[in-house]
Amino acid sequence: MKALPLFVVILLVASPVLAAANPGGIAGQATAIDGTTTAQVQPPTNETIRVLDIEESSLVRSTVETEYVDLGPSLDFAALRAGGQIQTRASINRIESVGDDVSLRSQLILGELNRVEQRAIALQSDQQSAITQYNADELTARELLVEFARIDAEARDLDERRIALRELAAETPDFSIDSGRLAALERELDTFTGPVRAHTAEVLTGKADPTRFSVRTSQSGVVLSTVADDTYVREAYRGDLRDRDESGVSPTEALETVSENYPEVWESRATQNGADVVGAGNSYLVRINHDRGQLYAYVDSGSKNVFKESQTRPLDTLSRGVPESEIKDGINLTVYRTYPGGPLRIQLNESATGDPINANVTIGVEASRESTLLGRTGLDGAIWTVSPSSPYTITVIRGNAAVVLTVSPTPIPELATNSTGSTNTTTDVQPTASPTTASTA
After folding, report:
1. 71-100 burial by CB neighbour count: b if 16+ within 10 A, else e?
2. What confidence tens digit (pLDDT) does each residue in 396-419 have?
3. C-alpha distances in angstroms, 266 versus 43, 56, 83, 271, 429?
4. CA-to-CA dists, residue 179 to 121, 171, 185, 297, 378, angstroms
5. How far is CA 270 from CA 9, 247, 293, 439, in A?
6. Which of 270, 255, 271, 309 lies closest to 437 in space, CA to CA?
7. Nearest CA to 131 among 60, 37, 44?
């Protein structure tokens, strides 16, 4: 299978939303592009994993478009990164320069921490402003992605500074910073980072190939998704599902919220220890490794809703969606329909023999009347992308032969409780049966 283009695997280092999936259960074999045989997870049953998304009634704008390397943002990201490192180093030097003066050292640490917290508040305003401007057609989708990538990069730099301040505080006699405060700041900075935003920066700086991104927005929410390096990656943020009340949820309740909203994920945890929860302040992060990928779900303490998620799912673990086919001029074109922004597989085969066809595929959204070249299907006759939010047309031309198929996306597999406030699935979550890690670090 050929995916549109490379995705940089992001390891869990400082910000937990950046982990890449590592599913187990390898079985079967597949033929790679170069003809070699490789191990592959067998396709699962056609059961769709639920996702945090935007209801159609709240959707303001949606698009799918390809982004390329761009020198302007690339230079901006480099300057931002360098500036953040300089600022962090200057803060550390300023604190360390006071020597054994514990009182002054403590004041400087707290002052720097206050500045990081204030900047986190400013990033929240920046994010909402970007969504508002995009919805008002004052920003293009490309400009919105650039701004999200910038916010992502700054949030990561701020988290590095948070970690440095935590370490300086630990080295200071008779002084400490409340661990809950540090963890709450980490959770807040998580709000502005995500694997799709990070990959956007990789594309814009030329570290990854051009990639198609799906962008969907509401008044205060955004859903981003892409297919890269044989992985489907998505992230979603719903500001309307937050009330920032810090007193409403325990770690066990956060786990229950996630198990109820993602029953398929919960039931397919890689191990009984395949879920943990980290929380402080006004939200909890629940991390689950399962047999079809990885889920990071954020639960708001006040509303008790999942308000943010990121999912990474290798393509060979995905169900292929709802197929629709068209046969013409000896070409069998099959489109495995999926939900808006979901992973979309397009397959070409010889109608007579079933052999895969390596040919160019274009996609056009009905409303725009424009077509975009997706690329060639490869030796397996397949190509992956992300689904538009409205009806779209797939076109394949091979010599004098052509086949055209117009289809619509399928309904969004919405979370079980966020939209209705009542659960569709009841799951008994017992800490003794499903051990978790609850912490404030």
Report:
1. eebbebbeebeeebeeebeebbeebeeeee
2. 999 999 999 999 999 999 998 765
3. 19, 26, 41, 10, 10
4. 19, 15, 10, 22, 52
5. 20, 31, 9, 21
6. 255
7. 60
Backbone angles phi, psi at 193, to 5 degrees: -120, 160
Report the distance separating Cα 425 and Cα 429, nearest Å. 12
Q: With beta carbons less than 8 A apart as the criterion, state whether 207 and 140 touch.
A: no
On whether the CB atoms of residues 262 and 204 are closer than 8 A, the answer is no
Q: 411: left (phi > 0), else alpha (psi -120 to 50), else beta?
A: beta
Contact 129, 139 (CB under 8 A): no
Alpha-carbon gap, residue 170 to 121, rounded angstroms: 25
In Å, the largest CA–CA distance within the chain is: 83
Contact 217, 131 (CB under 8 A): yes
Q: What is the pLDDT of residues 353-392, one digit of tens each?
A: 999 999 999 999 976 778 899 999 999 999 999 999 999 9
Report yes or no: 385 and 373 within 8 Å, Cβ to Cβ: no
Burial (CB count within 10 angstroms: exposed 0-12, middle 13-18, buried 19+), residue 278: buried
| Residue 367 to residue 423: CA distance in whole angstroms | 36
Sheet holding 438-439, edge to edge: 61-67, 211-217, 221-228, 231-238, 306-314, 293-300, 283-290, 275-280, 438-439
Give the residue from 8, 1, 5, 20 showing the smallest Cα distance to 296.
Answer: 20
Chain-wide mean pLDDT for the chain? 83
CB atoms within 10 A of CB 157: 22
CB 280 within 8 Å of CB 184:
yes
The reported pLDDT for the residue numbered 351 is 96
CA distance 168 to 435: 32
Q: Are strands 275-280 and 231-238 parallel, antiparallel or unpaired?
A: unpaired
